[in-house]
Specification:
79% of the residues lie in helices and 0% in strands. It is an all-alpha fold and 425 residues long.
Length: 425
């Protein structure tokens, strides 16, 4: 006979609670294949440009060419996500992303002509993918909230992170293998096929109506409402800002092709394979931590956990910069992903719990500008720093800056230190 008291059993979270909701499960399937396709595309573009240019700044500029349109379109996209049914926006943006991926397939058919003509067609197409991401960024978290009840938001955020990270493990590894054994155009063809599956899957999610708009505002007020809301909320602003600068200075992943070929020196002929494996390493750590968080959510002492997670991430970036062994680098990047997963779940839960229903698109757009674009701008920062400081010093500098930002935020924002998200559910 069990000695557990009934109330104790009831308090234990069900790790699979959000997955029992059909619309949410299908939504996750769509996001999984979308992420898988985008990750393959990302790693192949990086390897392709590395082989053409051998220039870290040229590789880092990929992120900048995607971040610029993402930032420019995000506020308008957030406004659209609050006035147009979100499923329609996802279908349109996914279709546009699919067209851009087939364009990458087309321009990569003849690598010799691409080398002779220059890399500008690739940057132009990546600019278009940034537009698509600018619309998908705010609409996905806004749509997610319509699919699950409030008390399941932390669980839903954790599972979304887990599926995203699983795709982020498989995608880079598959991208490296496809590039090595087929070619860039073949890899882009696989990416386009996966995006097609994502597009078909989203068609089977219920087309939920929009939340009621509670206030009447003109276009200018609606476009800036997300910024005004975030900047008036110290907890949300500090959490977003902490992640922004941590990701901005911790973008070492963009330099993996250079580390593999110039620092780590794996066995000859395995370079592309190890580029994919190292790109996937953070996601392996994130998945492991994510599965733990479905049973032990980090929401009770969320502020403290956030500071520990971002500090750990910064230390891992420094360790990666110092490592000269490919498998040690792999282990360090796995740990970095585990720390980053905690940060992602806490930030996503803060976003969902503190945002009014009718503003989710616009506030998610601001979050995208803070976080989503910082990944790409971080790639450009890493490329620029690598050219100015050297490859290894630039990564150590980035990790050190992350640690300093955590210390500053810890001292400057006591409200975030004391944050307990369980009280908001």
């Amino acid at each position: 006979m069990s000695n557990n008291h009934p109330s104790e059993i009831e308090q234990r979270p069900d790790p699979f609670a959000a997955l029992s909701i059909k619309d949410f499960s299908v939504f996750l399937i769509s996001r999984f294949f979308l992420t898988l396709g985008v990750q393959i595309q990302s790693v192949v573009v990086g390897i392709q440009l590395y082989e053409i240019t051998k220039d870290p700044l040229a590789v880092g500029a990929i992120g900048l060419s995607e971040a610029i349109p993402f930032i420019l379109i995000s506020l308008f996209a957030g406004h659209v996500a609050d006035i147009v049914r979100r499923k329609y926006i996802i279908i349109g943006a996914l279709s546009f992303l699919l067209i851009a991926t087939w364009a990458l397939f087309a321009v990569s058919q003849d690598q010799a002509k691409l080398v002779a003509f220059g890399t500008w067609p690739i940057y132009g197409i990546i600019f278009c993918t940034g537009i698509a991401r600018g619309f998908l960024g705010p609409v996905f978290p806004a749509f997610l909230y319509q699919l699950v009840p409030r008390h399941l938001i932390p669980n839903a955020a954790t599972w979304q992170s887990n599926l995203w990270q699983t795709a982020a493990v498989l995608g880079p590894a598959a991208g490296g293998i496809l590039f090595g054994f087929i070619d860039a155009s073949g890899a882009y063809g696989v990416s386009a096929t996966l995006l097609t599956i994502a597009l078909v899957a989203i068609l089977f999610v219920t087309n939920h109506p929009l939340p009621k708009i509670e206030t009447q505002e003109n276009l200018g007020q609606r476009l800036t409402a997300g910024f005004r809301f975030v900047f008036s909320n110290k907890v949300m602003l500090s959490a977003f800002g902490l992640d922004l600068f941590a990701v901005l200075f911790g973008g070492a992943v963009a330099m993996i092709p250079f580390f593999v070929n110039e620092v780590l020196h794996p066995p000859a002929g395995t370079e592309d394979f190890f580029v994919g494996i190292l790109r996937a390493a953070p996601a392996i750590g994130a998945i492991t931590m994510g599965l733990l968080m479905t049973r032990f959510p980090p929401t009770r002492m969320a502020g403290r956990n956030l500071f520990i997670a971002v500090s750990g991430f910064g230390l891992c970036i420094i360790g990666f910069g110092l490592s000269t062994n490919v498998w040690l680098s792999f282990a360090i990047l796995v740990m970095s992903g585990a720390f980053d997963s905690v940060s992602v779940v806490i930030r996503s839960t803060i976003l969902q719990l503190l945002t009014p229903d009718h503003m989710r698109g616009r506030v998610s757009a601001v979050n995208g500008i803070f976080i989503g674009s910082s990944n790409e701008i971080g790639e450009f920062e890493s490329g620029s720093a690598a050219r100015l400081l050297g490859l290894v010093p630039s990564v150590i500098f980035g990790g050190s800056m992350t640690i300093l930002i955590v210390l500053f935020s810890y001292l400057a924002v006591p409200k975030l230190r004391k944050l307990n998200l369980d009280k908001l559910i």
